[in-house]
Here is the input.
Amino acid sequence: MITRFPPEPSGYLHIGHAKAAIIDEEYAKMYNGKFILRFDDTNPEKAKLEFYEAIKEDLNWLGVKPQIIENTSDDIEKLYDYARKLIEKGLAYVCICKPETIKSNRIKGIECNCRASKVEDNLEKWEKMFKVFSKNEAILRFKGDMKSLNTAMRDPTLFRILDIPHPLKGYKYRVWPTYDFATPIKDSLDGVTHALRTKEYELRDELYFSILRALGLREPILLEFSRLEMKGSILSKRKIRELIQQGIIESWDDPRLATLRALRRRGYFPEAIREFILSIGVSKVESEPTWDLINSINRRIIDAKAKRLFFVSNPIKVKLESFPKERISVNYHPDRDLGKREIKITQNLFFEIEDLEKFNLDDKFRLMGLGNVRLIQKEDLPIVKFEGFELDHRLKKIHWVNEDSLPFEVFVPLNLVQDGEINRDSLKVIRGKVEDSIKKLNVGEIVQFVRFGFCRIEANNKAIFAHK
RNA sequence: GCUCCGGUAGUAUAGUCCGGCCAAGUAUACUGGCCUCUCGAGCCAGGGACCCGGGUUCAAAUCCCGGCCGGAGCACCA
Here is the structure.
């Protein structure tokens, strides 16, 4: 079994691409086959050099490892040969009608005069496409069926003229094949046995096989699956570009997006993405999974690895009285041995104001890792008095930081789409103080801020929230 | 509009091809309880679904017909 993942190098990969790539790879693995990464770079107007590398990087991070990496643009000459064969067989013709005419004829199901021209004329015009004609003056079309109910069969375009440099080939070619022509031939030539693609291509199956049959080439098995949508997210390249232009989001790795780069920034593990994709499966059912599904998988994976740290939002200064020790030692994890950190007990501590407000004067509660305290003054500078170390499960427990704690920001991505509308306020910034042991951790580490959630450290003063 | 493809709990899926073991399994979410130095994890329990209508059959989530709803395609993009 040989499968292939054919992204166009015109943007960053998102979780929808991950679905295709992972399914392709898993199928090949299951049958001890091969998996090909093919850059579908037949449109020099869209392909950009940076994306070839970016896509490889992202796939590598995802843990998807192709055995073969190739570009459709490496085989343009072969595709020219097949085009010529088709013309010689009278199965393709050069159309010199105006684009508008072609369009309206297609809608009406009318054949144009070019379709009736002789093979020799077509061959001559085909040659002229390389030198004489310019863009929009001539295209090579497949002789399908202008009356077919399947509009993909109404003499689709096989080659068009594009006078723009290609990121890999420069000005070497100006006649470029379309997806509809390049894909079946490449698949067949590459030995692809099972070509998987998303549902919106279903109507093109007939064309795919017609081209292969016309050329006498081996026919792979075509399989389609539904496109992945995520609740509250935007995957469309076009729409993301608009959002960036409008300044609503910052970049392609904005944590509100579902690009692989964004997921990585938030602390999603590749294993979680894979498990999630496999749980979704390959059916044609249109579904819109919620983030809960992937979050719970990711949580299971990172729960064991994430150090627990105290981050206090909306801090309020509170005086601590009668504490007998100068420093305490607190484990990084409740049940895994991830080490511990020393915390200096300063005269004043900081609590979350929301926590403090819930307590009444004389209430007893516990400062996690430190001990039990009683609130003996609530106004002005609140004061708590130490009352002992012994654990009492009935006591409410809160987290806290000391005076050496550092200013810190957590970026919390919310749904970018809410009730069908773009939510402009979808990136919440929560400011607060974090214990200074954050300095010992590395950028990229996943932590759990106690009673807050899992976050990935982005800098020594900033983290991005993944999920609860 | 025409054509094609879908429709199982709130969400995502298993089961549909080859009808019976499905008074429908699992995950997630939710609710309650236990446990816990986190609002995290873990454990236990609970409610919750076969789009509708006909037909075939001893038997239908599964096969057939009709309808309804949803999505996609109709480019010199992929």
In short: The radius of gyration of chain A is 30 Å. The longest strand of chain A covers residues 406-413. DSSP finds twelve helices and 27 strands in chain A.
